[in-house]
Fold this sequence. Notes:
- By secondary structure, this protein is of the alpha+beta class.
- The protein has helices at residues 16-73, 122-135, 138-147, and strands at 81-84, 87-97, 101-112, 152-161.
- Strands 1-2-3-4 form a four-stranded antiparallel sheet, with helices on both faces.
- Helix 2 (122-135) runs antiparallel to helix 3 (138-147).
Amino acid sequence: MKQLKAPGFMAPKAPRWASRALIIEALVLMAVLSCCIAIVAQGLSVAAATALDAQQLTQASAYASEMAERFCANPEQVPVEEISGDLQVVVARTSEPTSTGTLWRATILVYPVGPQGQKVEASEALGAAQAGAAAGDSEAQEVSRVVQEPLCSLATARFVPREVS
């Protein structure tokens, strides 16, 4: 250890290892800080993606509900397929005549529309799946899953009584 010299003279220089330690500490601090910023950025991007998915699911649910209301108002007037914005709605209707009227059933599926407005060919897959399900064919059910999973599905029914004359 060096002794201090008389007043008025310069203080001794710090050892070289002290400046190296300061640089190493600064580098470690920058590495930790960059990791923290990366984690926060990733969390924000996941939150944004989740918000977009939630918005699309909310729109799909509202659109399926609207189509169900239209079906209950008049089952014969509901279109089999309709596109609104970036959503495609497919409605599979069946009717069962009874002695007192007709029981209408509908399965409403909402699919996303592709980026260039390409719609999913869901009506054919839905028809094949329903025909296969009636016959107990599991291959037809697989066809409907291969096409694309719907964002939202809804099943509803309405009984229309016969008019008494």
